[in-house]
Known about the structure:
- It is a single chain.
- With 214 residues, the protein is α+β, with helices and mostly antiparallel strands.
- It has helices spanning 34-51, 57-85, 124-129, 153-170, 184-197, 202-212; strands at 22-26, 88-92, 95-100, 106-111, 115-121, 131-138, 144-151.
- A 4-stranded antiparallel β-sheet has the order 1-2-3-4. Strands 5-6-7 form a 3-stranded antiparallel β-sheet.
- Helix 1 (34-51) packs antiparallel against helix 2 (57-85) and helix 5 (184-197) packs antiparallel against helix 6.
- Mean pLDDT is 80; it is low at 3-8 and 175-180.
Amino acid sequence: MLATTVRIMTFAKKNLNEGETIALDMHPHWWYFAEPAFSVVGAIVLGIWVATLDAGTWKDLLRWVMLPLLVGTCLWLLYRAATWRTTNFVITSQRIIFRQGLIAKRGMEIPLDRLNNVNFNQGVFERMLGAGDLLIESGGEDGQQRFTDIKDPAGVQNLLHSEMEKLRNRKGGGFAAPAAAMSVPEQLERLEGLLERGSITQEEFDSQKAKLLG
């Protein structure tokens, strides 16, 4: 079961809006280290094999190849560790926040009231490890966003739905229409899409449609 609050917060609270609280703050799943870690192990195994070879030209040549290979894979692992440390997937009472980058940084924010759909994907092996991908569809310009190496994606999906429901309740109940200047036909089209995906009920759809039509 997903813990809805992380004991040690790594996302700076100064970046939160007034009255905004953190529901989840986490780094990627440890499977994020798999590729560089396996590469280091492979380089070590190859190095041991080279060490067992009889002395000769081939052994000397392979030793010169193995040294940069081992150093390179270790540096890759260290870089991945630093990137993991600076990658945050955060769910607050108002939005989803994603930050990543050691030197060059990138990030995005998705308001909860703009979310249309939240899906997750897990292969058999990922399910055994408790990892997976999260696919978030929003009404923003980016449309769909995929977040990989998420811990317990099913639990994160449930948490997002819970926070979305809380936000709707705080705004007086019912479906929160997108901010910005969306026309009535555009909002109706969006409501129909949510209804088709099962994100809202027929009763919620009828209620919001009536409000939009006055």
